[in-house]
Structure formats: C-alpha cells, structure tokens
Amino acid sequence: MPRFAVIGLGNFGFYVVKNLFEMGFEVLAVDRDKNAVQRIRDICTRAALADATDKETLEALGVQEMDVAVVSVGGRIDASILITLHLKEVGVEKVVVKAVTEDHGRILEKLGASMIVFPERDMANRIANRLAHPNVIDYLPLAPEYSIVELEPPPAFVGKTLQELYLRSKYGIQVVAAKAGPEGKVLMIPGGDFRVSDGHILIVVGGNAELEKLQKFKGASGLP
Q1: Taking the CA of residue 223 as centre, how many other CA atoms within 13 Å lie in the half-sphere pointing to its CB?
Q2: Does the 3-117 domain belong in CATH 3.40.50.720?
Q3: Within a 10 A sphere around the Cβ of 97, how many other Cβ atoms?
C-alpha cells in the first residue's frame, strides 16, 4: 500500500490528507504553521511542524521513504519549487505539486514533478462546463484536445442502441461506462447493442469539439 507525504496544509492539502487517511493510507502531514498542524493531527498518521524548504529537515522526517509526496504550499512559488527539487533529490518517486501559474507549472515540470495540478483553474473549467451544458453532470479534461464527460443522454438518444447512434464509428466518441442514475449499477464499456434508457447516465471520452456537439445535440439521429 503506498505511503503519502503532504506538504502544505491549507484547504487543498488538508482535504488531500483527510481523504487519503480515511481511505486507509499512511499519511505524513507537514506544515510550518502550528495551527495547521494542530488542525490535522487527528486525521493523519503523523503530523509534523517543520520547514519543508530545508532538505535535511525533509530527510529527518523520512519523506524519502514515502511513495508519493504532494506539495501544496499556497502562493509560495519559491518554496514550492525548492521543496519539489529536494523531494526529487532525496528519491521520492512520485511528486504531485499544486501550481499557481502556467510559468510555475513549467518550472515544476522541468524539475521532474510527476503531476502538476491547478485546482482553481480546473474546478472553474468544470463548473463553467456544467453551467453551459445543463445535461453535463461532470467534466474532466484528459489532455488539451480530449476530455471525459459524464452526462444525461439527450432525449433523442433514448430508446436507441449505441450502434444506432454511430458515436464511435462516425465521431470517435467512446462510451466507456453507463449507469442507471447517480447511484445505479455501473456497466463498463457497454457494447453496441446497449440501449439507452431514460434516466441513464453516460460516461464518454472523446475530442473536445465532438463532445461539445454531443452536449448540445437535440437532433433525431447522430450528431450534427
């Protein structure tokens, strides 16, 4: 089972620690703010009051023994860069870093960060997409040109099979899962004979342009 270190215990870091710990993982939580450490101490494996920009301090905490480190130090761009550098130097295999700006993200990428996240930007994109398309339940970008979208099927899809909708063969949109309502049973990779019913939720992956058409679709068959 992987072990995690989370450095920086603002709102983002706090909930990463809380969720990982509740899933049963070992989590080391680190911050230089005493109040933040006190707040987290009962919902993590170990909470440490420390300055993570010091490499020797990180080694003393044993971060080199962790499988994943998450760096979330708010707007302290210089600290984020320095901590990421130290974590890579002491041998942490996977380093996930919260970035503030695109330039910050590019620097972190050069340092070898395994994953760079922009929580505010990504959440804003997801909310905007849901507001713009009421049938969209959730939205997750995969790459600049591709996304995963969870949506209620347009009314014209109801009663038709996936083969009859030509989503994959004509438009390159793959239905990767379907479920009967938010709490319903999930069917992974439904076949062409899967018939869409009212109340189904479809999870689809494809190019952003094609998904945009799907979200707006109101026609009788196929996409515009």
Answers
A1: 18
A2: yes
A3: 27
Number of C-beta neighbours around residue 87 at 10 A: 28
Residue type present at position 59:
E
Cβ 4 vs Cβ 71: under 8 Å: no
Instruction: For residues 47 and 42, give the distance between their C-alpha atoms in angstroms, rounded to a whole number.
Output: 9
Whole-number Å distance between alpha carbons of 52 and 13: 14
Q: Which fold has domain 122-216?
A: Alpha-Beta Plaits (3.30.70)
pLDDT at 219: 47
Are residues 21 and 87 in contact, defined by beta-carbon separation less than 8 angstroms?
Answer: no
Residue whose C-alpha is closest to residue 11's, from 35, 30, 36: 36
Q: How sure is the predictor about 182, in pLDDT bands with cuts at 50, 70 and 90?
A: low
**For the chain, what are the domain ranges?**
3-117, 122-216
Please state the pTM of the whole predicted model. Answer: 0.65
Q: For residue 145, what pLDDT is reported?
A: 80
Domains 3-117 and 122-216 are alike in CATH topology = no
